[in-house]
Amino acid sequence: MKQLALVVFMALLVAGCDTNAVYKEYTDIEDGKWYIKNTPSFTFDIKDASIPYNIYYNLRNSLSYGYYNLYLTRYLRDSTGKELESRLDELILMDPKTGKPNGDGIGDIFDHKFLMKRNYRFPKPGQYTMQIRQYMRQDPLLNVLSVGITVEKAGAPN
Rounded to two decimals, what is the model's pTM? Predict the structure, then answer.
């Protein structure tokens, strides 16, 4: 019971630090097996298109993850479903030479926050969807526990 209370407290503490976040969401990867067909989708509202936003990947993996990197393809769509962009990104989860994990870890679980887009200006206010697909070509990709995004107002203090 004490452990659960500690986890809830830590989650609230971390969530309270994102005061400039307008959206933050994770999708858990069932059994840590990320199938290529599994493309988590995140839908969020942009109320003010006159200001820039930073968009981040959020990723949680175990130390048993078999690679130092992770390739992801992202798709950004507007409320009509029109694709505004798609792009392949490489996230570096561990030092390629030493194997030392990047990110913040507790035990063998590590959390990462990678900048996806800096100072992005959405075309207009409205609803947008970001879809993420693993592109490692291992199916399923093992030991990825959750993936998500954060959308923050750029230039706001953390």
Answer: 0.85
